[in-house]
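User: Please fill in residues for this 181-position structure.
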C-alpha cells in the first residue's frame, strides 16, 4: 500500500496463475488451475476509490486472464480480444483501475471456455469497502465488522467462498466445499 502524488491510495497485488493438483477430499486429487497456488485465489481488498494495480503472471500451461467485477475500463477487464486479452504461458500484464462500486465482488479467469477455467479453480473474492467520506454509515458498519466495536475488539472477519468440483467431468459436481475445505 502506498500513496500516489495526488493523495489517492494505491494497493498493489501480484497474482500468478499456475497448474496445480490438489486434494479436495481425502484421497481425491483434482487437476486445477489456480491463482497463487490456492482455490479460491487470494482475497483482494481495498476501499472505494483506491487505485488497484494487479500484476498478473501466467505460469500455467494454458492462456489465462483475470477479470475483476466492478466498474472500470474495458481495457482492464481481462476479456479475450480486449486490452491485453489472453495472456500466454510465461506472459504477464498489469491491470490497473479505480475500485468502484463498494461491495463484495469476485474475480476470475475470463479465458474461453469460461466455465472450464472457473471450474478448474481460477477465481477469488474482490472486496471493495465503502469510502468513509462518501458513505459514512456504510463505512462505519464495515469497519465495525472488520475490527469490532469499542465494546468488543475481538470480532474477526473471514471470507468464505463456496465451491464445487466435478471430479469425473460428467457435468455434475461430486464434491462441495467452502474455500476448498
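Assistant: Residues filled in for all 181 positions:
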Amino acid at each position: 500500500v502506498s500513496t500516489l502524488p495526488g493523495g489517492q491510495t494505491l494497493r498493489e497485488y501480484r497474482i500468478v496463475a499456475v497448474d496445480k493438483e490438489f486434494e479436495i477430499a481425502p484421497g481425491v486429487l483434482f487437476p486445477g488451475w489456480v491463482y497463487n497456488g490456492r482455490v479460491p485465489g487470494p482475497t483482494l481488498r481495498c476501499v472505494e476509490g483506491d487505485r488497484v494495480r494487479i500484476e498478473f503472471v501466467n505460469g500455467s500451461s494454458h492462456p489465462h486472464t483475470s477479470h475483476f467485477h466492478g466498474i472500470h475500463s474495458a481495457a482492464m477487464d481481462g476479456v479475450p480480444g480486449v486490452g491485453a486479452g489472453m495472456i500466454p504461458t510465461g506472459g504477464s500484464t498489469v491491470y490497473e483501475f479505480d475500485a468502484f462500486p463498494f461491495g463484495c465482488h469476485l474475480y476470475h479467469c475470463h479465458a474461453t471456455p469460461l466455465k472450464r477455467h472457473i471450474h478448474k479453480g481460477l477465481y477469488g473474492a474482490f472486496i471493495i469497502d465503502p469510502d468513509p467520506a462518501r458513505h459514512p454509515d456504510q463505512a462505519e458498519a464495515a469497519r465495525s465488522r472488520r475490527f469490532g466495536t469499542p465494546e468488543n475488539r475481538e470480532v474477526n472477519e473471514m471470507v468464505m467462498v463456496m465451491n464445487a468440483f466435478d471430479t469425473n467431468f460428467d457435468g455434475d459436481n461430486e464434491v462441495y466445499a467452502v474455500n476448498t475445505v
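For context: The two ends are 30 Å apart (CA to CA).
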